[in-house]
Known about the structure:
The strands form eight sheets. Strands 5, 6, 7, 8, 10, 11, 13, 14, 18 and 19 form a ten-stranded antiparallel beta sheet that branches. This protein has an eight-stranded parallel beta barrel with strand order 20-21-22-27-28-29-30-31, surrounded by four helices. Strands 4, 9, 12, 15, 16 and 17 form a six-stranded antiparallel beta sheet that branches. 20% of the residues lie in helices and 31% in strands. The model is unreliable at 1-5 (pLDDT under 50). By secondary structure, it is an alpha+beta fold. The protein binds (2R,3S,4R,5S)-2-(hydroxymethyl)piperidine-3,4,5-triol. Residues 316, 346-347, 391, 458, 460, 502, 504-505, 521, 524 line the site of (2R,3S,4R,5S)-2-(hydroxymethyl)piperidine-3,4,5-triol. The site of (2R,3S,4R,5S)-2-(hydroxymethyl)piperidine-3,4,5-triol (DGJ) has 11 residues, from loops.
Amino acid sequence: MQRRLLPDDTHARTYHHLRAAGVSVVVVVSPERLPHLLHWGADLGDVDEEALAALDLAAVPPLAHNTYEVSRDATLVPAFHAGWLGRPGVLGSRQGRDWSPRFVEVAHLRDDDEGRQRLLSTAVDPVAGLRLRIEMELDASGLLRARSALTNTGPDAYELTALRLALPVPAQADELLDFTGRHTLERVPQRQPFSFGLHAREVRQGRPGLDSPYLMIAGRPGFASRSGEVWGVHLGWSGNQDLYAERIPNGARVLGAGELLQPGEIVLGPDETYQSPWVYASYGDGLDALAGRFHAWLRARPRHPRSPRPVIVNTWEATYFDHDLGRLTALADAAAAVGAERFVLDDGWFGSRRDDTSGLGDWQVSAQAWPDGLAPIVDHVRGLGLQFGIWVEPEMINLDSDLARAHPEWVFATGGRVGSPARFQHGLDLTHPGAWQLILAALDDLLSRYDIGYVKWDHNRALVEAGHSTDGRPVIHAQTVATYALLDELRRRHPAVEFESCASGGGRIDLGILERTDRVWASDCNDALERVEIQRWTGLLLPPELIGAHIGPTPAHTTGRRHGMQLRGGTAVFGHLGIESDLTALSAAELADVAAWVAFYREHRDLLHTGTVVNVDLPDSAVAAHGVVAADRSRAIYSATMVRRSVTWPPGALTLPGLDPSTTYAVRPMPPGDGADAGSLPLWAATGGVELTGRQLATVGVQLPPLLPEHLFLVRADAVR
Ligand code: DGJ
């Protein structure tokens, strides 16, 4: 029997080599099949077409008995006909027909522009009546992103269940990392072997969630911040998600992502198209390198916030629902005195919202709480030279609200019932044009009437049983589109206003919402010890300037832990700094401490918000250390926190990665995080610092002081020659 050795389109294959910043993506294309990635990972050098063909040839596996006798190449949108045995990229049917499409007549268009290499592929399945379009682009940062669109070219309805993209990773990527969490404990990492089968994280909450998978990462076992190859995908979408890793016995491993669609949610009529969200894919040698590509990509966006990130005072943990003008003006005075630059009035200013049981949906200033409107507080804050910000939660509704009484049909409902309340609230169905227009008008009026520079946009419940109230159909996809449109329109009308994405803390952090927001609230947990981890892992996707980090009260409201100002200040300055504590209740000494950290942040935010984030792999996990190195490597700031007690005592050396190996740096403790409360300092620190090269600092480092648990130490490194 003659056995086919090569995929049947070998003769027609050509190659695209996308290369940027140490990443190579080799795409195999042919007129007969969808593109597939022959390689996504480390740079392969300057390889010509012939060498790429040889690479392709070398990658064809031998035919073994009883294996599926077609190519094992997983196309970017995997398909059964191309030999893929795992999850299909297109899942859907025309009442049971056309469920296994074969796309042919594939046209590929290379369309590079400055800093971006693009490949666009279009294909049709004339039998199934489908057209597919795949876009792929490699950014100058080495970040790859891809999305696809499916059009129904048939005469009748096509029900789409899933449209997913899957990227291959090599067999060396044998360990998985993704995330889970809960309210006040977001982004808890979980690792496991990349075993056979499917590891899928399905998000059905209408937002990525407090337990968001965030990224699906595969890497060489034991990968760490600074070592071990890693490949990761993220879905830039704020609704339901499906993020997965799949391994099948023919050797293939993929990382995949797509929107999770509910039954009947997407039914394409003739000529209708479903567009998938972007799937972002980052490769790196170590997690810092993977994160660095996301950071570089985000920082290159035209709308990335580049002005100095203002120090915020947020009223929530200071006053909660107590909107008393005297109390709030006193808080604003104290905010100005410690050097804050933005004052954010949180929940409770509108409608009947005196607690969390009522008022959501009624975005008019409460005459009860604010008899003279918001002008007295806005004018007072502006008079102090601070920007004024305000809290809203536009996608939600309390049944006890004027809006719900006037429009009960705008509350999500399915099966003839509204679902269960959560935090006494329900989802407001923005797919009703009237609801969307009404909320737009109310928020537009608010932003036009008052001098508001910042909106904290909250989303405080999982949207389960989110049905369109007239017919009960699932509506999260359309709701997400409507929310994006609402934000886009408000931004168009008020281009100077900045927006924050908050969802009970970090429940909606993704690159979809970040196309239209300028900051995320990482967590409702202001306990600095918890924040060390939450911010570290939130930083896997986002650079520090996008991550809200506040100096909270002590004891912390969410954990009851007590921390000194050193840990609270020294942790919060590594994000977009804020204060969320009743400053009017602090002693003069405590206020001076807060002011010192605000001054530190204001002095160094140019570095902290443009530099390269590094995380230090230390042998003892009792010490969590990280830093930011200036883009030109002329200076850096590092932090080491004793997150618990350790048997190793004193704690040993802090290595300082990321510096220029051959430059000499002066390394000094950095007030106010200079270890003054550590009892004693190591000799190098007690004698005013030490000069070492970047190579010596990365490999040998400097000794840490005997830090008390839940205390930190900051050092700076400045190039001297
Ligand atoms: C949840 C947010 O995360 C908090 O910061 C605060 O804004 C409350 N909602 C207000 O209800």
